[in-house]
Amino acid sequence: MDNCVAWKKEEKVYLDLDLDYLERRVGDTIGDENVDSGSKEEDSPADSLDRVKVIFLGAPGVGKSSIIRQFVWNEFFEDYRPTERRETFYPSVVHADRLYELKITDLPTIPYFPVSTHLEWTDFRYYGLRSATAYVLVFDLSNQDTFQYIRTLREQMYEARDMRGVPLLVVGNKQDKLSAVVASGARYRDIVNLVRKHWRCGYVECSARFNCRVVQVFRELMKSIQAAEGTTPSPTPTASHHHHQQQQLRSAHTSRDSSDDKCFII
Ligand SMILES: Nc1nc2c(ncn2[C@@H]2O[C@H](COP(=O)(O)OP(=O)(O)OP(=O)(O)O)[C@@H](O)[C@H]2O)c(=O)[nH]1
Ligand SMILES: [Mg+2]
Question: Region annotation Disordered: residue ranges (predicted)?
């Protein structure tokens, strides 16, 4: 376990993609007044594309929004502003020479994971909970009670949908607040053991506050998404799709302006 405070700020390469064909959702996720209205999910052309849908879940205050905002916008707020409505982020990521267009959904804490489409419709309409490509489950390393929330949620997810080929990544956030005493304790060891050995899923410790290993969170996420692509039937890229990707990749390497559609090479 490394100490995040001592770490130097992670380097992240971000360039801009030529995504003119997309409807820009400028400011969609910044400032409260611009937050996604939570209205009908399929309104945006950006959603109709083959986006990789990632949902962040976890107990209140563990730092879900902070991790996402640190990655997408390089910003961090000390004050706690609970997420009140669904917020969506649309970064593009190049990982292992492949371009992925993500749709990251940040939600107000959900009391449970809907076990049926009926419950999803009545209680969590347009959250896309049951149809996500991948989930990131966040807990707070300095408040290990928050792990129980994701433990229960994970059980509910496995009851609710076929999780084979659905990547799950566990993130222990606020690593800067993890004391040596806690880190050498049995409870901490049990959590890491459970996640790594029994759940057999990716596990990253990070600090959104210090932007420490936040990129690693997304790198691990992309790795598990890539691995899952090999196990689930996904549409084989057509020649024109491949050509389009190549063009986007080229453009990602050449274009640098201040547009909001960032492309992260991780
Ligand atoms: N020390 C420390 N504080 C953090 C870190 N990440 C987030 N915080 C703080 O924790 C509080 C909650 O962060 P949020 O990102 O709003 O948490 P959240 O999980 O989105 O919370 P909800 O939207 O209510 O579910 C804020 O005051 C953040 O400044 C971290 O890595 N270290
Ligand atoms: Mg939040």
Answer: 228-261
